[in-house]
Amino acid sequence: MTPDKPIGIVLLNMGGPDSLEAVEPFLYNLFSDRELIRLPMGALLQRPFARLISHFRAKKVRLNYRAIGGSSPLLMWTTRQAEDLASLLGKAYRPYVAMRYWKPFARETLRQMRADGVEKAVVLSMYPHYTGATTGSSVNDFRRAVGEVYPDLQFTVIDQWYNWPGYLDALANRVREGLEQFHELLRDEVQILFSAHALPQKFIDRGDPYLEHILDTVKGVMERVGSKHPWHLGFQSRSGPVQWMEPDTVEVMDTLAAEGHKALLMVPISFVSDHIETLQEIDIEYATHAYKAGIPTFHRAPSLNVHGDFIQALADLVRSKTKEAP
Prior knowledge:
Layout: E1 7-13, H1 23-31, H2 46-67, H3 74-89, E2 93-99, H4 106-115, E3 120-125, H5 132-149, E4 154-158, H6 165-179, E5 191-197, H7 201-205, H8 210-225, E6 231-236, H9 249-258, E7 263-268, H10 276-293, E8 297-300, H11 308-324
Parallel strand pairs: 1-2, 1-3, 3-4, 5-6, 5-7, 7-8
Helix pairs in contact: 1-2, 3-11, 4-5, 6-8, 6-11, 9-10
């Protein structure tokens, strides 16, 4: 290994609008992805559909982003994760980020990697739980971009790590930190609600392992935290006239409120960074809903972001998987 031939460490993520003006084109890119949303009428109608729905949804989504400062922090967090990870892996590694639905896209990242003299890379999906709608789409997009921009690049893909021990340890630590936010006299009464991003049920029915991966993660985390606190699982961010995974996170909150529970810790389970689903949907919408439903004490476990134990877990994961690579 020579210093002039760095190894790229590429983190794949969804991306998010970097301004309120970027919200509509971001939504258009998202709804245009047939690996995420497949219209039964066929590919020819995908883009007109995406243009229509992104236009009508943009107004509400802009309000949500305005509530958290006017843009998504996902690129900032993913860039910091990549930089911290490369630092732990050693001087031979150089950090990169490739987003699926907003800048930087895989093609521009690959152009930069080629200009930097990167000939080998490790590509890490920042979705721990595999589904074709997220990891599958991002990895396929990266592979297509490699074929178009940099076909000589040699790379290894890490596309799932839902049961990686270091990840489970880091997430368990965030749950413990979340529990510490409750008064000690209330702590034993806390209900833990893991909230994952929902998928249309058809993904699960066709054999997508996402639900199995989520359940394995939750069980691994709770084994580390201890069984004193009851836990529940819900699925958030459901929208549109399709059958979604159940139960809805809000429905779980309503059930807990009806049972008389007064303290709730929300744990975002399928997200490793703060973004719109944690900062707006959970911290604002769900916190308000919990209070109105009769749960006066509501907290969220901190996101993994750039906590040292999480970055160390990713470094150990990369080292382990690259040793396994042929």
